[in-house]
Amino acid sequence: FLQFVFHTYTTAFTLINGNGTTKAEEYSLQQKQIFCGLGAISYAACVGALPLVFMNRYTLKGPLTQLVVRQLLPAPLFGLMSAFTAAVVRSPEFENGIQVMDRNGNVVGVSKKAGEKAVRETAWSRAVLFGTTFFLPTLLMSFVERAKLAKTSHALASMRMIAITSVLAGMLPVSLSMYPQCGEIKRADLEPEILASTEETEFFYNRGI
């Protein structure tokens, strides 16, 4: 349930802050994105919970299993599923294309290749953000537990929350600055129909967040 809530929030954020070139009234975009988003959220939540369900179902309580399922798997799964939901909910951008502009801000066309690049960059930044946010606190808390710095379970839980919040606060600007908000795509990477209408060599697009 908690993973469902987490992926619902991040998917809604992605939907709101995507590139707005494709209009809902033209392509029934809103309905399609909602259905794709719900499917992606459900899938991501199930995949994220599957290792724990599998471990509890078959009573796999060994130390190695606990290490893998509870400490090693969550970070890459969160990163991978966050990238997956971002790509799915913004799939209309590389299916229908997004606007590309010249250096003066004039729209020269709608490019599927620019849309693919924008979605790929956003998905990568989301994977880095949440993968790192869940990996570093786990690594830090393993040292805390070994050093027995936390005397009670409540103190340990509080330190874990502080660690997650601190890493998230630090990683958020890093994630957002991985790729510029105004992305750049070269002439050779665009469709021929766009190139036929202009002599510009560099083009720009709104990547979204």
TrEMBL record:
InterPro entries: Mtc
Subcellular location, record wording: Mitochondrion membrane
Gene Ontology process terms (BP): amino acid transport; mitochondrial transmembrane transport
UniProt GO MF annotations: monoatomic ion transmembrane transporter activity
Domain of life: Eukaryota
Transmembrane segments: 34-55, 67-89, 123-144, 156-179
GO cellular component: mitochondrial inner membrane
Entry keyword set: Amino-acid transport, Membrane, Mitochondrion, Transmembrane, Transmembrane helix, Transport
Protein's UniProt keywords contain tRNA-binding: no
Entry keyword annotation includes Transport: yes
Topology of this chain in the membrane: Multi-pass membrane protein
Protein family per UniProt: Belongs to the sideroflexin family.
PANTHER family, per database record: SIDEROFLEXIN, SIDEROFLEXIN-4
Protein name: SFXN4 protein
Organism of derivation: Baryphthengus martii
